[in-house]
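Aim 2, interim progress: modelling of the calcium ion-bound target.
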Amino acid sequence: MRILLVEDDMMLAEAVMRALTQSAHSVDCARDGAEADRALATEKYDLVLLDVGLPQIDGFEVLRRLRARRSTVPVLMLTVNDALEDLVTGLDLGADDYLTKPFRLSELEARVRALIRRAHSSAGSSDLVHGRLRLDMAGRRLYLDDQPMDLSLRELAVIELLLLREGKVVTKQQIVDHLYGWEDVSSSNVVEVFIHRLRKKLESSGVTITTVRGMGYLIEKPSGSGGD
Ligand code: CA
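Predicted structure of the complex, ligand included:
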């Protein structure tokens, strides 16, 4: 999942980024409300972790503008103040959940999993099934015939993106964006390496990653309902 973290406390931001990156999420960090507003207006995120107390524009205003643009991206508010009015304000503005500082990283990760699950649940599950593959998006694991596969975090992020956009071409740039936060220097050559490794690991699964020349990569929709 691609996550935007909006937090001006750098120590906290770094700890949160580390934890989420370890779960194969790609995290961008904005340090003030204006930067967050710009990022949210131009980039596509799967989840936003939004601090309330921010320089320039506060978290409530960022959220108000986000919802005014009709974005439905899930938002988890981070607040130091558990005063009821603050929480009500956030929820009224369209926040999906909130967490009061200080919080444990494990608590944050549990909330993130729950929001991802909620956002993707059609039948109360955050599993993405493709032929013999099953991706547990909340639990961050890929299964082949119910056996967990041995994938690196980056590989998991790439296959997740391809499966989420099943039947559509995903460009190298989209994969790079999904893999790296703003801080990372990356090249699209790296994408080829991940695709190569994934193809090897998926060899026995019957799932093919197709190269679409000059455009990107594609996983076709499974042809039969239960086929591979
Ligand atoms: Ca703050």
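The two ends are 25 Å apart (CA to CA). The CA atoms of residues 24 and 156 lie 7 Å apart.
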